[in-house]
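Hi U.,

Before I forget, here's the chain from the pilot set. I'm dumping it here mostly so it's searchable later in email.
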Amino acid sequence: MVRRKKSPYIVAGVVSFVIFILGFLVGFTMLDVQLEDLRLEMDRNELELKNINLELTLLDKLGDGEKLCSYLNERIEYIDKKTWELGNKIVNPEGINQQYFDILARRYSVSLIEDWIFSNELSERCDTNRVSVLYFFEKNSDLCQSQGYVLDYLVEKDKENNLRIFALDKDLDEPAIQILVQAYDIEKAPTIVVEGNRFEDFRTKEELMVIFCAVNKNLSFCE
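Structure:
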C-alpha cells in the first residue's frame, strides 16, 4: 500500500490554524486576568471610599478638629493616588464587551465624584492649599485630549500636590455625572469648573495658571 504524502500547504495551514487558536486562547486568558485585576482594584478603591466616610463620622463624634484634619488629609492623599492609578488602568481593550466596559467606567466615575466630594470637604473643614477642579471632556475629541495634556502638565508642575483634577466624561450615562452637568450648565467640552465657576473651551497652561492661582496663590507654580 502506497502512503500518500501530505501536501505541504495542508500541513502549513493546520500549523497556522493551531498557532492562531493558541494565540487567541492566550490573549483571551490575559484579557480575563487583566479585567479581574481591574475589578479587584475597583472593589478596594470603593471600599476605601466607604471607609473614609465612616471614619469621618467617627471623628466628628470625637470632636477633635486637629486630629480630624491631619487624618483626613492623609487619607484623602492616599485615595487620590489610588483613584488616579486606577483611572490610568481603565482602558477599552480590544475584545471586551462594550456594555461591561461602560459599567467599569461608571463605577470609576462614581468613585471619582466621591473623591471630589471628600476633597472639597477637606478644604472646607481644614486650612489647606488644595484646588479641586472638575474637568468635563468628550471622548474622541482632539481638543479635549489636548486640554487633558495641559492639565496633566500643571499637576506635575505643582510640586506640593495641591492641584487635583477630576476628569469626567460629560456624556457618560451615569446619573451622578448628569447631576453635575445640569448643576454647572455644562453644554460643551472641554469645560472646567473651579470653585463653582465654569470655564468653557480650550485653555492654555498660562490661562489655567491664572485661574488656579486666583483660587489659591500658594500653589507651587504661582508667582
